[in-house]
Amino acid sequence: MTRSDLPKVLVSACLLGQPVRYDGRASGHPDLLQQWQAEGRVLPLCPEVAGGLPTPRPPAEIPGGQGAQVLDGGVQVLTVAGEDVTAQFLAGAQQALALVRQHGIRVAVLKAGSPSCGNHLTYDGTFSGVKVPGAGVTTALLRREGVQVFSELELEQARQALARLPASP
Ligand code: SF4
User: Fold this and answer.
1) Cβ of 57 less than 6 Å from ligand 1
2) Which single residue of 15, 29, 74, 145 could bond 69 by disulfide (Cβ 3.0 to 4.6 Å)?
3) Nearest Cα residue to 22 out of 65, 64, 51
4) Using an 8 Å Cβ cutoff, are 133 and 36 in contact?
5) Is 28 part of a structural domain of the chain?
6) How far is the centre of ligand 1, averaged over its atoms, from the C-alpha of 47 (Å)?
7) If phi over 0 gives left and psi between -120 and 50 gives alpha, with beta otherwise, what is residue 132?
């Protein structure tokens, strides 16, 4: 298998050392993700920045914490000041979907807990630090596409999922 044949993986840009978080910081740069970058298999994306939001930016949460409900139009994503940023979150999720389709991506590693990228838990919309079971907007959309979404807390599972994939056509 040549490097160009290696299955690609979509990764939250903040997990690659890029300071794109709402608070202007990064979220670390795990060794395995650095290795995948060196192998040329990583496609970085920050859905919120891709969707047009600045950095830094006010924190935003999904009331109820369900990104799928945002996709279906039933819930807005709101900043702590009450600004509706749903359109930007949806635009970023669509950019992630476009990358996935363009590159045949079946595995993603996205930042845990984020209203865009979270895969198991998200904040509940009260800005009080309470998390509920749920997925962020981008994760929910990618799952509808059949992408396996892991977090930085599940890198071994992501590695195994990637290893099970066939080479890119
Ligand atoms: S968690 Fe996702 S949306 Fe938030 S900074 Fe990281 S890549 Fe961007």
Assistant:
1) no
2) 74
3) 51
4) no
5) yes
6) 6
7) beta
Is 156 domain-assigned? yes
**Ligand 1 centroid vs 21 CA: distance in angstroms?**
6
pLDDT in tens, 50-83: 999 999 999 999 999 999 999 999 999 999 999 9
pLDDT tens digits for 112-127?
Answer: 999 999 999 999 999 9
Cα–Cα separations (whole angstroms), residue 134 to 2, 10, 15, 96, 149: 37, 20, 20, 19, 13
- Domain assignment present for residue 169? The answer is no
The token pair that represents 97 in the structure block: 């979907």
| Structural domain count, the chain | 1
Assessment of whether the complete model's pTM goes beyond 0.85: yes
Is position 110 within any domain? yes
* Alpha-carbon span 5 to 162, nearest angstrom: 12
Q: Is the CB of 10 under 6 A from ligand 1?
A: no
